[in-house]
Amino acid sequence: MNAKAITPITTSRQSRARFNPIRNLRPDSVSNALESFEAGRLGAAARLFESILKRDDLICGLNLKRKKSIARLETEIVVLEDSPRALKHKEALEKFYASVETTSFTDKNERGGLRMLVSQMMDCVAMKYCAHKFFFKSSRDGLKGVFEQYPLWLFENTSGKLRLLEREGQLTEGIDLDENSWMITCGDGLMVASAIAYIFKQLPLRDWLIYCERNGMPGIKAKTDAYPDSPQWEAACEAVRDFGAEFHAVLSEGTDIDAIDVSTRGELPYPSLVERVDRMLCALWRGSDLSTFSGSDKVGASVQWYESSLIEEADAANISETLNSQIDKKVVYALFGDEEPLAKIRLKLPDYEMHKCELDILERLVAMGLKPDTVELAKRFAFPISKGSNSIPPKNAEAESGENKNEVQ
Q1: Spatial contact of 71 and 125, defined as CB atoms under 8 Å apart
Q2: Which positions ≥6 away from 25 have C-beta within 8 Å?
């Protein structure tokens, strides 16, 4: 093929030459982009998703919170068996991930390490896919990995697997990706639903702004019996202009000034529609609505922290499993020649109230008289126990035992 290889320079030119994907956006254009996305033509929808993620205040914040909540997590290398070989694998992976370099194909100013890599991988939550091209190079500490994120609009998915396009907008099949050079992270693709919500949120927002512009200040009407262009007429015109209203008029017959108010009587429909969409987006991205939208009398709103913790746990597991299956194996094979690694990377979830719901259930079971195994509970909650303890007595166990002794006596 005689097509030119795509480079950051040509990509930059294409980005500047493209039209704004959300200017004059209509429901039918969103529908067409989403249908093409589902058919494997990712370009139009990917460009649309990127613009919405940057320009919508709520979606931008939700996306950043979702990404940063995982990127901030500490990492650890876990051995899968107790052996000297496993310890060597662990040491090699620790050095590898400590020296990771990350950059972006479209913005070479972005440079970072492992946290930036995790943050970029979290783009799959919004975009459904995230593609990184990587290569290994030798260093004095072992093996070093360099990762470069590619934008989704440079790929097509018509065959069920991502393939790289030689130029944006290409309608022919792309180039197959080498599994030894590409890492693909898959996620929920929440921007499909969010793009639909965005367009229908903009409609009431636009109408709301127009209403405020037209009715924020009432118009002024002046009536005078003076002849036009007479000093009395000009004085009336000057008086009307002094009110500062954008809409004003001077009429003959009788000197009188009235306020013209064409605003709607009653509650406007626009705020409730916008709030409804915002609540839906918060529930979609974070598992519960925004606390600022929830009154104190609304039970089960943002206090549903457990849903957010479930989402965070799933995101951390997705990132860890992607690195385990696509990177850990290649690093261990390159250094030791082993097909299966005996250690793996894992994102460590925070301990704050992560198991509160489970503890509440456990407390109820103990109150019913059940005796859970202490060792299993200690493993579950990472709690040290004394030797010889194998059960937890109910709350009222001591009181009941004392009553039984008194009855026997």
Answers
A1: no
A2: 48, 199, 202
- Per DSSP, the residues of 274-294 read HHHHHHHHHHHHHSS--GGG-
Our CA dihedral for 115, 120, 124, 127, rounded to 10 degrees, sits at 150
| 8 Å CB contact between 53 and 122 | no
Which tokens in the block code for residue 64? Answer: 């950043």
Q: How far apart are CA 401 and CA 238, in angstroms?
A: 94
Nearest to 365 by CA among 385, 390, 394: 394
Q: What residues are paired with 76 via a beta bridge?
A: 346
* Phi and psi at residue 386, to the nearest 5°: -85, 155
Q: How far apart are CA 368 and CA 364, in angstroms?
A: 6
Phi first, then psi, for residue 62 (nearest 5°) are -65, -40
Counting Cβ atoms within 10 Å, is residue 154 exposed (0-12), middle (13-18) or buried (19+)?
A: buried
- Give the distance from CA 120 to its chain's centroid: 11
Q: Using DSSP, how many helices (H) and how many strands (E) does the chain show?
A: 15, 13
CA dihedral of 113, 119, 121, 123, whole degrees rounded to 10: -150
Tokens, residue 385: 């126990």
128 three-class SS: coil
Give residue-wise pLDDT tens across range 152-176: 999 999 999 999 999 888 888 999 9
Q: How far is 153 from 166, CA to CA, in rounded Å?
A: 11
Cα 164 from Cα 58, distance rounded (Å): 32
Segments of the chain with pLDDT less than 50:
1-4, 8-9, 12-13, 16-17, 19, 291-303, 389, 391-409
Whether 154 contacts 47, CB under 8 Å? no
Enclosing H/E stretch for 221: strand 219-224
Q: Give the residues across from 163 on adjacent strands.
A: 156, 176
Instruction: Write the single-letter amino acid at 72.
Output: R
Could you give the CA distance from residue 208 to residue 273 in angstroms, rounded to a whole number?
A: 10
Apex CA 174: angle with CA 125 and CA 117, to 5°? Answer: 35
